[in-house]
Amino acid sequence: MEVGFLGLGIMGKAMSMNLLKHGFKVTVWNRTLSKCDELVEHGATVGETPAAVVKKCKYTIAMLSDPAAALAVVFEKDGVLDGICSGKGYIDMSTVDDETSTKISEAITAKGGSFLEAPVSGSKKPAEDGQLVILAAGEKALYEEAIPAFDIMGKKSFFLGPVGNGAKMKLVVNMVMGSMMNAFSEGLELADKSGLDPQTLLAVLDLGAISNPMFRLKGPTMIQGNYSPAFPLKHQQKDMRLALALGDENAVPMPVAAAANEAFKKARSMGLGDKDFSAVYETVRQFKPSSS
Amino acid sequence: MTLVCRPTYGKLLSSAPMLAITSPSPSALCPPLPSRLRLKARPFRFGTGGLLALSVPFRAFSVSASASEFPERIGFLGMGIMGTPMTHNLIKAGCNITVWNRTKSKCDPLISLGAKYKASPEEVAASCDITFAMLSDPESAVEVACGTHGVVNGLSPGKGYVDVSTVDGATSKLISEHIKATGALFLEAPVSGSKKPAEDGQLIFLTAGDKALYETVSPLLDIMGKSRFYLGDVGNGAAMKLVVNMIMGSMMASFSEGLLLSKKVGLDPNVLVEVVSQGAISTPMYKLKGPSMVQSRYPTAFPLKHQQKVRNSKVYHPFLFSWSVRKFDLLAQLENDLQIIDELHLLFLLACLYSTRLCQTLPRLTNSFTSVWLGTHIEVYTL
């Protein structure tokens, strides 16, 4: 099966690599073309522009960092729209708000193409291991055709209905995750300041009803102050912001998420935006007294 | 930036004192643990997740451990949601049990299984070698330990008192002082786990206090639980429990917001539960509670009022402490309001967790995280 792949960041690189390793023919594009080199070494071909990729491939997958990038890739000159036509499918796996997704969907289908949004749950390692959770919505027929690719990139995929539902589900999940990370950070700090060993807290948590892979994975690195990015904090904060906007549109009060968002904003203001989202721990961590 | 959230109802503990900062070291109330005492875990568990890289010895748990290994006479005070199944497990294991409960009738099921009964905590403590207590809140714990006909009147050197209730560190230390003044040993041992883990003997004990008593009662803890930790000085067990429950409560609140949002934007909350269970934030709690939350069924495993008690406790340290709002009057008020908001399954009970970071020169108020309690007019909240 031949697919195009737009966007070779943390996620896109791992996902397209998986497809290559499992026998897919992949044509890649990235705004910074040098990022394509490693994929080329593994057998990918390069498209000079998104339009070139789409013209070449029946199906094109996109994995971009945010709504602005997702829109740009579609609407700019030599973007996806310049290549899309009847018979082609565009699968946007970026995490965006439902409005952005709808806009893209309308433009694609207006030109005769079919569209599927398919944001994923999972970060760098699940992407590398093909263990993503795929939250698809849009054209059912395109979803069915994409399943072979989804089965490589992920461990489970859901079809959630009309365009917008995938985006919404992703935002809800990431909202819960962002709030949980904040609760976890506060717990670590509280334990530490109460004279308890944070490692013991991790051990206790892991035995009980709230044990989860995220705490298990991030807890030790947070204690060490190691925030090598698997999921950049700025993207997590983007997701909190989008989730809050969704809540705002629908009159859903979400003070916990709102407070978590503030913590992420604070972390960004501290210059931690490109670090892993677990760096939000630094916003509550041991206050360093001013030198006096 | 300041995000201040004041509850529109209920009483703020405005009299909560700001802890005077005189030193940068951790609060004297919770001294740091010597590292040799930090973790004595003997986890014995199946199932979810993997253990962190701790070199922890496993110990084969012998179900047929003979009753002679246990302290001879064991008392148990408090036959509530937790105390009843815990006592039940001890009886099934062959222990000699004497029970007491404020409402005597709650003791009947245990008596019918062979437990003895005494009419006051004092008498139970006097007639037993080790007495456990599982009470609902700090006030009850203090009352049972030190009140009229309280445990202290029945204790003497050679005996032990193990308080398994969840209380704040200050209460625990108060009880400890009174207990030890009698010459007896004291162990605080709050548990992580609610009704089902109690029934299944799968609790996690977070103990602190007299090490010798911990050693003596370990076989009993192993009957009632799947793992136990010894955390050092009295106060550390209470603190650990509160930290865990704080995280848990916040997670429940976050999850509730997610369920509510998903429903309001036209998604199926059951699908959200399933999606969450597939990913990095999959927890047993979400898997267990999610489906019934979606259907607004809230059978009591951990009454909301007790979760709120956790919030009312103040854990002091130099740079970070929290107030919380008294919940009972809130709940009553909201129960009234909730009658008319039937459609919303999840409602806010209160919103207050203030974090304050103090420094020597510049007081700064930062709300890093506001926690909200979501409940329903059914007034239960399962954990």
UniProtKB/TrEMBL annotation, chain A:
Domain 3-hydroxyisobutyrate dehydrogenase-like NAD-binding: 164-282
Gene Ontology CC: cytosol
Annotated GO MF terms: glyoxylate reductase (NADPH) activity; NAD binding; NADP binding
Claim: NADP is one of the keywords in the record: yes
SUPFAM superfamilies reported for this sequence: 6-phosphogluconate dehydrogenase C-terminal domain-like, NAD(P)-binding Rossmann-fold domains
Occurrences of domain 6-phosphogluconate dehydrogenase NADP-binding (ranges): 2-161
Region forming the signal peptide: none
Keywords on record: NAD, NADP, Oxidoreductase, Stress response
Catalysed conversion reaction: 4-hydroxybutanoate + NADP(+) = succinate semialdehyde + NADPH + H(+); glycolate + NADP(+) = glyoxylate + NADPH + H(+)
InterPro entries associated with the record: 3-OH-isobutyrate_DH-rel_CS, 6-PGluconate_DH-like_C_sf, 6PGD_dom2, 6PGDH_NADP-bd, HIBADH-like_NADP-bd, HIBADH-related, HIBADH-related_NP60_sf, NAD(P)-bd_dom_sf
UniProt-listed Pfam families: NAD_binding_11, NAD_binding_2
Active site positions, chain numbering: K170
Function: Catalyzes the NADPH-dependent reduction of glyoxylate to glycolate as well as succinic semialdehyde (SSA) to gamma-hydroxybutyrate in vitro. May function in redox homeostasis and play a role in oxidative stress tolerance by detoxifying glyoxylate and SSA generated in glycolate metabolism and GABA metabolism, respectively.
Family as reported in the entry's similarity comment: Belongs to the HIBADH-related family. NP60 subfamily.
Protein name listed in UniProt: Glyoxylate/succinic semialdehyde reductase 1
UniProtKB/TrEMBL annotation, chain B:
Domain 3-hydroxyisobutyrate dehydrogenase-like NAD-binding residue range list: 235-309
6-phosphogluconate dehydrogenase NADP-binding domain segment(s): 73-232
This protein's GO CC annotations: chloroplast
Pfam families for this protein: NAD_binding_11 (PF14833), NAD_binding_2 (PF03446)
Signal peptide: none
Any GO molecular function: NAD binding
Domain of life of the organism encoding this protein: Eukaryota
Similarity field: Belongs to the HIBADH-related family. NP60 subfamily.
Name of the molecule in the record: Glyoxylate/succinic semialdehyde reductase 2, chloroplastic
Organism name: Trapa natans (Water chestnut)
